[in-house]
From TrEMBL:
PANTHER family: UBIQUITIN DOMAIN CONTAINING 1 PROTEIN-RELATED. Residues 1-25 are annotated as: Disordered. InterPro entries: DC-UbP/UBTD2_N, DC-UbP/UBTD2_N_sf, UBTD1/2. It comes from Oryza brachyantha (malo sina). Residues 15-24 have a biased composition (Basic residues). This is DC-UbP/UBTD2 N-terminal domain-containing protein. Pfam families: UBD.
């Protein structure tokens, strides 16, 4: 409860997710190459952020992966349920409730504009 003139804090959990802006990879890549890049990131992601001493870090990475691979409405539900604080609405920068930072590259969130499609 604050005084009448105080400003309420904005609930960062409520930030609405948006699709990442279009981006271009350094060179044209195939869907298989993009998939491999994503797998490599997710396999090593816990080494790049979160709180290594806490099991919650792994749970947050799992939730971030599920959200990154889901449609926006489901992704929104996932991040809210996991208590993830979304700093950038495209999910490239997030925090857990303890303040640990999680950075996601755009290539795990969307496809590049120079993706080589078959046919």
């Amino acid at each position: 409860m604050g005084c009448a003139g105080s400003t309420p804090k904005v609930d960062e959990h409520g930030k609405k997710l948006k699709k990442p802006k279009p981006w271009k990879h350094t060179q044209a890549i195939t869907p298989a190459q993009l998939s491999q890049m994503r797998e490599e990131f997710w396999d090593t992601a816990p080494h790049y952020g979160g709180q290594k001493a806490y099991r919650i870090s792994t749970e947050i990475w799992d939730a971030l992966r599920a959200a990154a691979e889901a449609e926006l409405s489901l992704a929104q539900t996932i991040v809210e349920s996991a208590g993830i604080i979304v700093s950038n609405s495209d999910m490239t920068l997030c925090y857990d409730e303890r303040g640990a930072k999680y950075e996601l590259p755009k290539y795990v969130l969307s496809e590049p504009t120079n993706l080589i499609r078959d046919g």
